[in-house]
Amino acid sequence: MEIFSRLDAAKTAGLFKDFAPLFQEAYRELGYPQGEFSGGSHPCHKELLLTPAVEGDVRLKEAVLSYWMVDDSLEDLKRSAKTPSPHGPPEHQKIQKS
Q: What SS3 string covers the chain?
């Protein structure tokens, strides 16, 4: 990441401004038809800025437990669709019909 600290901030900002129309076009192509692309205001950028810089080794522990649905048509659903309804199947079906 040392390369970023070597960049000239003014020249980099100028390049960003020059390429802004291309960034805006790509932003629209990614499925954001409204609003303006702004490289510094996206929530992921804010999250990255808040992420601590860890020095040294990071200790990990094994904690992965995963399940896959045997029925591929169910496994291929979006994650939100695979979350069980807290009301149970009968109530879930009533909600879908309403």
A: CHHHHCCCHHHHHHHHHHHHHHHHHHHHHCCCCCCCCCCCCCHHHHHHHHCCCCCCCCCCCCCCCCCCCCCHHHHCCCHHHHCCCCCCHHHHHHHHHC
User: Which of these, 49, 5, 40, 4, lies nearest to 20 by C-alpha position?
Assistant: 40
Q: What angle do CA 17, 19, 21 make, to 5 degrees?
A: 95
Q: What is the pLDDT of residues 41-83, one digit of tens each?
A: 667 767 777 887 888 888 888 887 788 888 898 888 887 777 7
pTM of the model: 0.37
The whole-angstrom separation of Cα 40 and Cα 61 is: 34
Beta carbons within 8 Å of 87's beta carbon, 6+ residues apart: 95
Cα(18)–Cα(4) distance, integer angstroms: 19
